[in-house]
């Protein structure tokens, strides 16, 4: 458009002057919480879709199909981010180690979801923030603030109220998921480390590539043609399993691992509600009390932290 009469001429940058970079505020608990909302919703979908898909297929096959289909779903974001050239990484060992550990956690999750209730599954998984906090202090140099310690304590008490350990027999699924929780804690710290140098799309890209390679042999050994009724669940878990981790990785860009992990406590009461609605799994007063403690812990932890 032509310059209007009487308007001041636009300021011109002197020739050769450097353009001042516009830096995004990369520390925002609010943005982290919004991305964690996406993670929560998609992880509940993953639990249901994983349980339904594993009714007819081995967990190794479900994991393999999830990685392969998820890779196709991620391609638009890969191309938008600069294509395969932009996916090159200077930290291949870090990606390999993170995804080997994460594969163990995912495999544990998918096995446990078929043998114990959703409320038990997610409650046991929620020892993950405890491991995450320890590993973040040891390996990332993060500080254990009073708010974070209080959030973790309230969350653990809330989970204990829901699970009520000692009131029933411990099953194999409980122990498998406990091992998976340790793996998730290690993986979460590794992801936080990767976000310092790697883009979100690149992290998810290598997650799908590495995990597809790890699971190829056992999936082929146990392969069976998926029945027609399994395909909607396979596609659903491929989408939710891929983009839930996109949301988690974005949350870790905006906040420390010890801030992000306790937000995930809300998945305990939410998943219990899904289990009640879809599978008639029991919800009692203990879940309500535990949910209140978990919410209190999140509110304490989401207070503004010093930068």
Please give the domain count. 1
- Shape assignment: globular
State the end-to-end distance. 44 Å
The main pleated sheet reads as: none
> What low-confidence regions span 5 or more consecutive residues with pLDDT below 50?
1-25
Helix share, percent: 55-70%
The helix count comes to 12
Radius of gyration over C-alpha positions, nearest whole angstrom: 22 Å
Strand content bin: under 5%
Oligomer: single chain
Arithmetic mean of pLDDT: 82
Task: Detail the topology: elements first, then pairings.
Elements: H1 29-53, H2 59-80, H3 92-112, H4 118-125, H5 128-140, H6 146-163, H7 172-194, H8 200-221, H9 231-254, H10 257-263, H11 267-279, H12 285-301
Helix pairs in contact: 1-9, 1-11, 2-8, 2-9, 3-7, 3-8, 4-6, 4-7, 4-11, 5-7, 5-10, 6-12, 8-9
Essential attributes:
single chain; 307 residues; mainly alpha; 12 helices; disordered N terminus
